[in-house]
Every structure is written in structure tokens, then in C-alpha cells.
Design a protein that fits this description.
Largest sheet: 5 strands, mixed
Number of helices: 26
Shape: elongated
Strand content: 5-15%
Strand order of the largest sheet: 8-7-9-11-10
Number of strands: 20
Length: about 750
């Protein structure tokens, strides 16, 4: 049975058999190219996967099975929002599929799924722009999903997901502005791309595509041959803008909490990385020369596995792309589509070329918001996509010129050459990424010595030298080394909280970050500050330094043998006094003169430098304020014991998003909480009344919490301190309301008419 598809006024025949075969062929080819990822006994060993994506999804799975929405993460920096951190992608439906399959292998299956989605999306976009045969669109999908750009992001599950939805969003955007169709596709695909965890790819692609379409429309209007009237053009642009607003409203449950967290966080938004290898004109051979992108990453001589600027599409694909452009340039009826793709290609290349992205400094000075997109890498997504489309067009045109056995031979050989090219070129890189899954289950004695309990924070302070040395190393020995060091997010797997963490993408909010920078500075110059660590709920210190402890409050409980590949030896120290979630501040900071101390001043003025610093590099500590001179330095073991035992609050149970607490006296009163809190924490009394928790010093290492008197309820017994932010409640309400409204509109709306010239 034949159907007619109208593209740019030209009917193109397509059969139902071809509609079925295209996805099957693409999936089979991608399995050949990325087959190493499909082994359950092998797992991606890169830092982004091991220390960011995998722990977050694994922890989210545990919380979801307990019947909670994972809003809070107890285990990084002693506590931080989880759902609000965009890269957690907890509300992204494929994340649920990965949880169902089982992590970490489920995440590798999700990577393959998104490679398939990307291939199908760029095939659809190709058919929208040019009358390309099904064989041509299959080759387009292979060139795009098999490119080095995807290989360079392969361990970053969220990036792969966002890139995969890019051609679908661009296709719907172009269709809406050119044909006034594709509205539903634009809303759905944009929503999914925003939930995937890396929306910068979509933002930049739409920005450059929108610029290309505007350029095309201006040329057509100046030439006196506009496709539609100016009024209709404005209407379509407003419709596209409305669809983006609808997409943002659908994902408000993710966007609004992320915006709230971004207001007091250093790294929740993308950042300018001075160490990113910038793409330059001399790097153009990376399109066609295998393994040239090693040079881009500055990692010649070792397996890469992580290279954002990988753009390799292969010699065969590049030759077909050049042929496709030459042919399309002679077809005047495809002028608009050709100008659009060529303009997008040039604009994305100009955005990516040169330090900080070629023309990016000029654009950033005009539009400061662009700095958050880190465009040097993300702009190349559109370049690789356009080259792949041109390659599919050239392949389709070549087959039309051939006939008989030559046509059959070329039709089979060229895709096989492309698949073999990517498979052979990518195989060493993929194998260098993988490590035996058994290495992750090899728990060392250091981790086993840390026994989490409910009545204390059980925090670990890592006192390490060169974490960055392990970043690009994916060998099993390096993976085990990172586990020994108890990397911040990996603690979610063990149920142990850390109070520091400076890895890529894991810097804490700026008040806490400044404290840790200053604190680390002092620790490197002096012995470990027993009082401050105890106040932060730290029970263990893991260090590779020969730290000196001048107090009986600390004891060494274990020491690992020198590590085989670095020779590093770690020692684990334990605090002798029982750390606590809550302290009685009046006892803790009581003065010997009997004068009542100003608790708020002590907590706020001494422990957190007040300078907001969003630099990517840790600044020098402020020498004018010495944490070592804080009044808490004179506290002894008995002071801590009394402040803990006599605290008016005691934790009975740690919940995924809160604490189950026993009240030892009637509110109101003030306690010192060993951990950072942020707006959104509430008290729930035994009769289920909810009150705001009054906090002093949000996102500091420890916070003064004022317990309110519960109106009309029992003021003694048990209560809960829960994280239930207003941003999340508003976001979910807007999301559900928008989905309901759109469902009603779509059910009542007639099918979109096909475009006819």
C-alpha cells in the first residue's frame, strides 16, 4: 500500500515496508558500532558515569521503591537538593526504564536507546528538508548517531539523551514555521529534551536554527518570493513561541526547583571551563581523520573515552556530503532548505571555532545568557547533524544516477563501509571506557569500616590531594581508586555522607563552597580541626596525608596498603566522641564568665566567608579570618558529649527526604543542626500540622534551627523535619495543569492538515 508525503511541494513515495525496515536497520547497525556497551559484565568506568549519573539513579531507585519522591540527597556535602539538580533527570521517563532494567547496565541500554532515537530523528529531519530516499535517510541516521560527537559524550547519559532529541525538536520547529504542522511533536520532544538533564544542547540548536530560518525568510522576502505573507509568518512564530512556553510549563516540576537551586548554587548552571580544548580551524581534519580528536582533548598516547569536541563523521560520509551539497546547489527549488542548512552549519562552526567559541565573545557580550551554554562543544552538534543530512542527500542522489548491478552494489557497499568505519574507529575508545563490573563490587576495607547509623550523621571528611588525576582514567584500577577515596556521590551507594567534594560538576552552593575552600586551606596548614569537624557531624576522616592529631578525640582505625598504581596509602580516623544531628548551642558555646553568647553571630560570622565566588578555580583563603581562632577550638570532649546528650531533639530515623525526630522538651527552642539546609524544610507535628522551619544560615556546614510551637497540637513527643519545597509543589501543580489543558485541547482538535504547495 502506497502513501503520499508532500515535501516542499514534491511528492515522495514511501511504503509501509520501508517505514518498518528503516528503524530495524538503524538499530542493527548501531548495535554493531556500539556493541561493547551491551555487555552486562562490563560497565562504563568514566568519572561522569561512575560519580554522577550512576549513583544518582541508583539512589533515586532506592528512594522510589520506598514510596518517596527523591527530593533530597543526604550524602553529598552532608546534604543537598537532588531533584532540583537538573542532571539527576529523575522526572525523565527513560530514567524509570533504566531503574526497571537495573543500574548500571540499564543506563547503558538507555544510551543505545537514545542513539537509536537520534538516528530516527535526523532521518525524519532529512525527509522534511529534502526529497531523500529511504536509503538516504538510513545513511543519514548512521552518520549522525555513529559520529565521534556521540562517542565523545557516550558516558554522559544526560548529554546523549539531550543530543538525541535535538533533530526531533529542530524537525518540528522547521515544520511548524514552514508548513504550520508538527506542533505536538515540538511540544512533546522539547519537554523530553528539557527533562533529560542537559537542555543546553536544545537551546543552542534552536537558537542557531531560528537564526537560519530568519535569514532564509529575509532572503525570500527581499527576492519578492515569500512562501507566506508577513502576517502568516508572524502567526507561525508566535505559535512556535507558545509551544516552547507550553513545554516549559509541562516540565515545571523540574524547572522551577532547578531555578530555585540555581539562585544560591555555583554549579547547577553550566560554567565556563578554562581547560576545555577549544575547537579551531586547524581541527577541521577531525571530521574525516580517525582518532584526530585525541589531539582536541590533549590526550595523545592514551585512550580518550571523554572528548566533547569529537566530530568524526568519516571520509566516506564527508565525501558524500560534499557531493550532496554540490547537487543541492544546482536545484533551485531546494534553495530555501539548502540555505537553511548551510547557514546553520556555518553559524554553528563560527560559534564553536576559536578560544571561547570564535564569535561567542561578541555574542556573549550582547547576550550574556549565552555564556551558560558552553557553546564551543554544543554548537558542533548542529554541524555534525547538517553534515550527516548532506551525506544522506548525496548518497540518495548517487543511487538515482546509477542503475542495474552498480546501483545495487553501491547501495549495499557504502552503508557497510560507514558502519565498518565507525565500528573499527570507535572500538578502541569504547573498550578503553569500560571496566569489569566486578571492580565496582570490590568493596575495600576502608568503606567497610564505616558503619552508618540512624542517630548520627556518619559523615566522612575526605582530605585528598589530586582527585583530578583520576578523571580521564577508566581502568579498573582507577575506578577502584575512586571508590577507595569515597567520592562524594558514590556515598549514596553506601549510605555515608561526605562534607566536602570538589569533583567536576559537584561543587557545592557558594556559601558552603567558600567555607570548604577556607577550611581546606586551614587543614593543609594546620592539624585537623577537631572541634569544627565534630560540629559538622564528621565521625570519620579519610586522608592520604600524614596528618597529625594532637587530641585523644581521634583514633586511627585502619590503613590501606599502598595502592598498586599510585603508591598512595590512606588512613581512616574516627572521632571518639559520638557525633550528633542536633546540639544544644547554649551548652556548646557557654562562656566561663556566665555571659550568654550570641549564637547567631557565632554561627554566621565565623564559619562562612561572606564573599560569593563563582570562579571555577578555588580562590586563596582569606587570611584576615582564621577559622582556627574560632571559640569552638577550645571545646573539649565533655562539652560535645553534654551538648549532644542534653539536646532537646533526638533523631529516631533518617527518612529519604527528612528526619523522624523525638522532642525532649516543649517548643519553642533553638538547636544547632549538623548539616546544611535550604528553603523548603518544614516541621510536621504528631497531629500532622505543618509549620515552616525557621533557619539561620542556609547551606552552611551547620545551621541554627528554631523549633516553633505547634498551634493546637501536641508540643512534645515526635515530629518530622521534611524537605518539601514550595518550588516543587508549584512546579508539579503547573505541570499537571498544563498536561490536563493540552490533553483537552488535543482531544477536541481536528487532525492537522497536510501541507500542499
Amino acid at each position: 500500500m502506497k502513501s503520499k508525503t508532500v515535501l516542499f511541494g514534491q511528492p515522495v513515495n514511501s511504503s509501509e515496508v520501508a517505514n518498518v525496515l528503516e528503524p530495524v536497520i538503524l538499530l542493527g547497525a548501531l548495535l554493531v558500532i556500539y556493541w561493547p556497551l551491551m555487555s552486562p559484565s562490563q560497565v562504563i568506568g568514566g568519572m561522569d558515569f561512575q560519580n554522577l549519573v550512576f549513583p544518582q539513579v541508583a539512589y533515586a531507585a532506592t528512594v522510589l521503591r520506598s514510596g518517596f519522591i527523591p527530593l533530597w540527597n543526604w550524602y553529598t556535602w552532608g546534604g543537598s537538593p537532588l531533584l532540583a539538580a537538573w542532571q539527576s533527570a529523575i522526572l525523565y521517563p527513560p530514567t524509570w526504564c533504566a531503574i526497571f532494567i537495573g543500574v548500571p547496565f540499564g543506563l547503558q541500554i538507555i544510551i543505545l536507546l537514545h542513539l537509536w532515537i537520534a538516528a530516527l530523528g535526523v532521518s525524519r529531519l532529512t525527509r522534511t528538508l529534502f526529497p531523500v530516499s529511504r536509503r538516504g535517510t538510513v545513511l543519514t541516521g548512521l552518520c549522525y548517531a555513529g559520529s565521534g560527537f556521540f562517542l565523545g559524550h557516550i558516558e554522559q547519559v544526560n548529554s546523549v539523551a539531550a543530543i538525541a532529541w535535538t533533530p526531533w525538536v529542530v524537525d518540528a520547529f522547521v515544520s511548524l514555521l514552514c508548513f504550520r504542522k508538527g506542533l505536538r511533536q515540538l511540544i512533546v520532544c522539547t519537554s523530553l529534551s528539557l527533562l533529560s538533564g542537559h537542555p543546553q544542547h536544545i537551546q543552542l540548536a534552536l537558537l542557531l536554527t531560528g537564526g537560519g530560518l530568519c535569514f532564509c525568510y529575509v532572503l525570500l522576502f527581499l527576492g519578492g518570493n515569500p512562501p507566506v505573507s508577513a502576517k502568516e509568518t508572524i502567526g507561525r512564530c508566535l505559535l512556535a513561541a507558545g509551544s516552547f512556553v507550553a513545554s516549559l510549563a509541562i516540565v515545571s516540576g523540574q524547572v522551577i526547583p532547578a531555578l530555585e537551586l540555581a539562585s544560591f548554587s555555583e554549579r547547577i548552571w553550566p560554567y565556563s571551563d578554562p581547560f576545555t580544548p577549544h575547537f579551531r580551524w586547524s581541527h577541521i581534519p577531525a571530521f574525516v581523520v580517525p582518532r584526530f580528536f585525541n589531539h582536541l582533548a590533549g590526550t595523545e598516547g592514551q585512550p580518550v573515552g571523554y572528548t566533547e569536541e569529537s566530530v568524526y563523521v568519516g571520509i566516506a560520509s564527508f565525501a558524500l556530503a560534499a557531493y550532496g551539497v554540490a547537487w543541492l546547489a544546482t536545484q533551485r527549488k531546494f534553495f530555501t532548505a539548502l540555505i537553511l542548512t548551510f547557514f546553520c552549519f556555518m553559524l554553528s562552526m563560527l560559534f564553536a571555532l576559536g578560544p571561547e567559541g570564535g564569535v561567542a565573545p561578541l555574542l556573549v557580550n550582547t547576550f550574556p545568557g549565552l555564556a551558560k551554554m558552553r557553546g564551543a562543544a554544543r554548537a558542533l552538534n548542529l554541524s555534525v547533524m547538517v553534515v550527516s543530512i548532506w551525506a544522506g542527500s548525496g548518497y540518495s542522489r548517487l543511487l538515482r544516477k546509477l542503475s542495474g548491478p552498480w546501483r545495487t552494489t553501491v547501495a549495499i557497499v557504502i552503508p557497510l563501509v560507514v558502519v565498518a568505519d565507525f565500528s573499527l574507529t570507535h572500538r578502541p575508545e569504547l573498550l578503553s571506557l569500560l571496566t569489569p563490573a566486578a571492580a565496582m563490587r570490590n568493596l575495600n576495607t576502608t568503606v567497610e569500616d564505616i558503619r552508618p547509623t540512624c542517630d548520627s550523621p556518619q559523615r566522612v571528611y575526605r582530605f585528598m590531594a589530586y582527585d583530578a588525576d583520576l578523571y580521564l582514567d577508566h581502568r579498573s584500577s582507577a575506578v577502584a581508586e575512586r571508590y577507595v577515596r569515597i567520592q562524594p556521590n558514590l556515598n549514596m551507594l553506601y549510605g555515608v555522607a561526605v562534607s566536602d567534594g570538589y569533583e567536576e560538576g559537584l561543587l557545592p552552593p557558594w556559601p558552603y563552597g567558600n567555607f570548604l575552600r577556607h577550611f581546606n586551606r586551614n587543614l593543609r596548614n594546620e592539624s585537623l580541626d577537631r572541634a569544627l569537624l565534630a560540629l559538622m557531624g564528621v565521625q570519620f576522616v579519610l586522608t592520604e596525608y600524614p596528618a597529625t592529631f594532637d587530641s585523644t578525640m581521634w583514633e586511627k582505625i585502619s590503613e590501606t596498603p599502598p595502592r598498586s598504581w599510585t603508591g598512595t596509602k590512606y588512613s581512616l580516623w574516627r572521632n571518639r566522641i559520638p557525633t550528633a544531628w542536633f546540639w544544644d548551642p547554649q551548652i556548646l558555646f557557654a562562656t566561663r564568665t556566665g555571659k550568654q553568647p550570641d549564637i547567631i553571630k557565632i554561627v554566621q560570622a565565623y564559619f562562612t566567608p561572606h564573599r560569593k565566588n563563582t570562579s571555577t578555580l578555588p580562590p586563596r583563603a582569606e587570611t584576615r579570618r582564621d577559622i582556627q581562632s574560632h571559640p569552638a577550638i577550645s571545646l573539649n570532649e565533655q562539652d560535645f558529649a553534654r551538648a549532644s546528650v542534653e539536646s532537646k531533639l533526638c533523631v529516631a530515623r533518617v527518612l529519604p527526604n527528612g528526619l523522624h525526630i523525638k522532642l525532649r522538651s516543649d517548643p519553642p527552642f533553638t538547636v544547632l543542626f549538623s548539616g546544611p539546609l535550604c528553603p523548603g524544610w518544614k516541621w510536621i507535628s504528631s497531629d500532622r500540622r505543618m509549620e515552616d522551619a525557621v533557619l539561620s544560615g542556609n547551606f552552611r556546614p551547620f545551621v541554627l534551627v528554631k523549633i516553633p510551637r505547634f498551634s493546637g497540637g501536641h508540643n512534645r513527643g515526635t515530629c518530622r523535619l521534611v524537605y518539601y519545597p514550595f518550588s516543587y509543589r508549584v512546579g508539579v501543580f503547573v505541570s499537571l495543569l498544563t498536561l490536563a489543558v493540552l490533553t483537552v485541547i488535543w482531544c477536541r482538535r481536528r487532525p492537522e492538515p497536510a501541507f500542499h504547495s
